Amino acid sequence: MRKSIKFSLAAVVCFPLPYILLPFFNSYGCDYRSQLETPNIIITGVCKNGVLRTLTHFKDSGLTIGNTMLIAYREPYLMTVSISKNIVTPPTTSSSQETLNILRTEYLTPVVRRFHIKKIGGDYVFLLRPTTADKPNTNLIYKMKLDGTFSYWD
């Protein structure tokens, strides 16, 4: 009886591990540079061995934020887990309210974010899913240029 309980417990614990770890292993194959430009921000990024480093430059204030993240990719979802965030260049002027909202909701608050991702030609389109309950159910669509390999199983 005790052996069957131990076996059942081990199966319950070990069974989901490959499902959880496989996206991180898949993302370990990333080797690319990316760039995204919107009317308010410019984001450049480099991904190597599952670690994505981005610089986000806010055009109206001159503020630049550095972000280091682990990524996990399982089609069609990309999950990012922030490791560190820091201000690279402080703002030179005050920001507009729209920029402050973008900064607060997308760059300072979330630690784990999930994107729906779809490849179109040589570009990737990210569809951002809201991560907090207080935001309305809207999605922001970003189209990002990628040069390189996105993951082992693209």
Description:
The protein has three helices and eight strands, in the order H-H-E-E-E-E-E-H-E-E-E. The protein is an alpha+beta fold. It has an eight-stranded antiparallel barrel. The longest helix is centred in the first third of the chain and has 13 residues, at 2-14. The protein starts with a helix and ends in a 5-residue tail after the last strand.
Unreliable residue stretches: none
The number of helical runs is 3
Along the chain, the helix and strand elements come as HHEEEEEHEEE
Average pLDDT for all residues: 79
Furnish the topology, listing elements before pairings.
Layout: H1 2-14, H2 17-27, E1 31-37, E2 41-48, E3 51-58, E4 64-74, E5 77-89, H3 97-108, E6 112-120, E7 123-128, E8 140-149
Antiparallel strand pairs: 1-2, 1-8, 2-3, 3-4, 4-5, 5-6, 6-7, 7-8
Tags for this entry?
154 residues, alpha+beta, eight-stranded antiparallel barrel, 8 strands, 23% helix, elongated
What is the gist of this entry?
The protein is an alpha+beta fold and 154 residues long.
